[in-house]
Amino acid sequence: MIRVLIAEDHAPARAGLAAVLGGEPDMEVVGTASDGPEALEMARELVPDVACLDVRVPGRDGLSVARELCGAGADPQIPVLILTTFDLDEYLFGALEVGVSGFLLKDSEPDDIAAAVRRVAAGHGTIDQALTRRVMSEFAERRSLQPVTADRARSELTARELEILQLLARGMSNEEIARSLVVEVSTVKSHLARMLPKLGVRSRLQAVVWAYQNRVVAVPDPEGR
């Protein structure tokens, strides 16, 4: 059973999300919070498997809440799924930097929200497809996510690791990458485990951002070509 904490200041949205996730056979909503301080207190007490966090909860900004829940110094670290509107602001970019497991549009279909929670609970990153191109394009033009340069990473990554990174950046899961390369899923996981430290990142999602930002893979154009 996936234990979920919801932090959302808008009461109808909070109730709706709780109803959607609570209705899933493999999920339990263990708490709902209406602001940042309450979310932090409940998260520390309940230690959920996933915290669904509104990016702009009152009381504390969403970035500081995410940092305390899933940042490098968090203990325990609680995976965070950010729920946001379509605008791309510093909260989203900062959230990626502190290590959120993913973010999703608030108006996503209920099945997509539930699927995202499952992916986060399983330790996978997830990002809304409608946001992917805008996020990656923006990151490609902005400040560095971390100090590892593309040239240095290319010199340290094996050919197979670079190939996996490129497939990962296309949105493929471990299973899809394994099928594409005709290898075992465990082999893909082993390559990923060795690759992330070389890039100076802590998650699959940060690895994807790094790949686009450093132009290891091309940023798709608006037509998806």
From TrEMBL:
Any single biological process term in GO: phosphorelay signal transduction system
Domain HTH luxR-type span(s) in chain numbering: 150-215
Lineage: superkingdom: Bacteria
InterPro entries attached to this UniProt entry: CheY-like_superfamily (IPR011006), NreC/VraR/RcsB-like_REC (IPR058245), Sig_transdc_resp-reg_C-effctor (IPR016032), Sig_transdc_resp-reg_receiver (IPR001789), Tscrpt_reg_LuxR_C (IPR000792), WalR-like (IPR039420)
Record key words, sorted: DNA-binding, Phosphoprotein, Transcription, Transcription regulation
Pfam families reported for this sequence: GerE (PF00196), Response_reg (PF00072)
Annotated signal sequence range: none
Residue ranges constituting the Response regulatory domain according to the UniProt record: 3-121
Alphabetized Gene3D superfamilies for the sequence: 3.40.50.2300
GO molecular function annotations of the record: DNA binding
Annotated positions of the 4-aspartylphosphate modification: D54
SMART domains found in the cross-reference section: HTH_LUXR, REC
Name of this chain's protein: DNA-binding response regulator
Organism: Dietzia lutea
